Amino acid sequence: AAIMSLVSGVTDPLSKTLATLEAIRKSWIGAPRYHRSTVLPPDYAWVNGDLILFEDRPEFEEVYLAGGFEGMLLEANATSEQIAANLGKFRKHPNGLGLYLPSCGEQFFRAWTLWAGREAGSWQGDAIRELSGRIDLSRMGSAYTSEASPSTGVLQIEKDALPGLLTSNGASEFWMWGKASFSASRVAPTAEENRPLNIALPVVLYLGIHA
Hints:
Layout: H1 2-27, E1 32-34, E2 44-46, E3 51-53, H2 58-65, E4 73-74, H3 80-84, E5 90-92, E6 98-100, E7 133-134, E8 138-140, E9 143-145, E10 152-153, E11 155-168, E12 171-182, E13 203-206
Parallel strand pairs: 4-5
Antiparallel strand pairs: 1-13, 2-13, 3-6, 5-6, 7-10, 8-9, 11-12
């Protein structure tokens, strides 16, 4: 009896530890995460929209059937517009054979909460803050110059404007010529794409043990 009690005392904590580790492992199934290498680990996939068949990944199906992807699913008949607007979501197979993974390549992740003001898994196009500028011209002698009222923001006067009078069909009209330019780089860093500060990290998704 003493021996059985001793064995029980050793195996019970071990069983609890193993059960905890198993629960942690299963909690990773279907959850995109950063990876330390560009080599795909066994039982993982890139989040690139590939189809994962349930017959190959029974644990992946188990999570799906248990509602583990709630709020992150698109129906099989989703339109191309709906798919493009929800790149972070899984999509059902038309015959129920599996799920198409999210397509997160080249996309920035943005933390979502219940108060985010948008749908989880939804895609958002790029945008920049408003860029503005102003040119104020002042009359100085025979020219309109920016020296007294300079240009600001993204606008810049490259040559002062010269005024004159033009008679056309017996009517006198005011006219002037000059040169101004627009460049967003005067107030913000520019490139061929809009992007925040970023680091390119591999993103993988655990599929569970293969059948």
